[in-house]
Amino acid sequence: xxxxxxxxxFSMYRLNPNAPKTRELSQIEFFKAADDGKVVExxxxxxxxxxxxxxLTGEVETDELDxxxxxxxxxxxxxxxxxxxxxxxxxxxxxxxxxVVRERKSPLSPFALNLIFILGTMFLxxxxxxxxxxxxxxxxxxxxxxxxxxxxxxxxxxRITFSDVAGIDEAxxxxxxxxxxxxxxxxxxxxxxRIPKGILLVGPPGTGKTLLAKAIAGEAQVPFFAISGSDFExxxxxxxxxxxxxxxxxxxxxxxxxxxxxEIDSIGQKRTGAGAIGGSHAYEQTLxxxxxxxxxxxxxxxxxxxxxxxxxxxxxxxLLRPGRFDRQVMVELPTLKGRKEILELHGKKITFAKDxxxxxxxxxxxxxxxxxxxxxxxxxxxxxxxxxxxxxxxETLEEARDKVMWGRERKSAGYSQKDxxxxxxxxxxxxxxxxxxxxxxxxxxxxxxxxxxALGATMALPERDVLNHTKxxxxxxxxxxxxxxxxxxxxxGDVSTGAAQDIAQATQIAREMxxxxxxxxxxxxxxxxxxxxxxxxxLPPAFSEETARAxxxxxxxxxxxxxxxxxxxxxxxxxxxxxxxxxxxxxETMDGREVxxxxxxxxxxxxxxxxxxxxxxx
Length: 618
Prior knowledge:
six-stranded mixed beta sheet; five-stranded mixed beta sheet; alpha/beta; 15 strands; elongated
């Protein structure tokens, strides 16, 4: 830093644009000013040996006047030609001018000064930006660990424990022995047992992997080192490895403790082999250092590494072997019971109205993670405040759920009457098939009010958590996707872009039935997997082009058959479809009970609040 400041001042001295300006005079102009009495004595004859030149300098009066009426003075400079110095000096002496001779000579030549400046700058940049920091903390502490350390002895109100984690009971049970080891390591060592060196938490985003790791540290009351995989990434090669070594060194000093690495896939990806350069080489250095550190310390030292990822297929095999990450704990999306527990846990700080039923909300939110449910309750509380309610009621909970899933209602979207009619026919087609087809989920609600990017939505509510889907269910879902386009074309004589999501969803279901689930009449019990989207390698499909063409043909055949069957059902129930579309244009939103009543030819039932829902067909 001192060298940098010195170079800056040196540059300012040599290149200062604000230095006093000097007026350049020829000898004729100088003697004219002297004859006019404007040259101020003494006159300096200056010999600059650094620059190799001689000149006269001093002050000369100008025609301008200052505030006191005196002439303004400025500095002048008269270059002298070698060989004329003596005659010029004699002329000045004859005119009786007082002349002073001065000389400047630096111990270093201008070339040497410039060379020192350039070399100093190059050395400084090399020191700061190009020096590898192998084994050191680097300049300004770049190689220092950036892990946040929680002491584990904080107050009970701030400490996170297993009571703050809900909906993942199996995962909590699996890591409970880690807590027991950290509390009493001797009991494990006495019988020759050892705790796993590393635990890998695997699960979708928002399921509570980070929260579970904090709860382990809170229960055991030990130091907790928290860091993200991206904190090891840096533009300087070797910094990530240095930070990894520093973190493990600090952890060993404070053992027993927990080291938690979030998003470990950013540094633990499969290595690309020899010849890697650039960023790939940097993260491989970090990974290699982590492998050595995890396999280099004794498990009895009490340093336990917990990592989290939602992409375990991208991790290097050396990282997953026994002795490093011995155990993988699956942190899945919560079940119905787990969702209810999560809602109750996050709902302790929220005031609910009497009609609020968290059990119904939990039943209507399959596929929600713990973070989604927490966000739902927060949105419901905010909506209740805006509505000036005394508590969060069931209607507000449903509105919050819909907002979290599809966005807020856009009642002021201002789309035309033709768009409203097209959307009404489209959603009526989905709703009719949702009621008529026996293998689909029960209809929950249908609306033509724009929400998010959709102009309307048909929403279904599974009666329970579904762990397996049948072939009949998938075929019914494809028919359901076709209903909107069929009804739209039948009554408007044209098609629109509103079915884009339906087309994509139907195509995906049909392709997965054939390529993934073995539900094909032609291919039977086979799987045709595409290359992983997480792989950097460009790999061909694991099947021939002829097979690919056959798969495409069967996908088309499956969708065409479903489309024809859906078209037949809608044609047979055309009067019911017209009634649904007309009612939708009047009411804009209908719940499942109302749609079922109209399909059965009954009058509409009185409105009631209904549960939540997870699935949408636009």
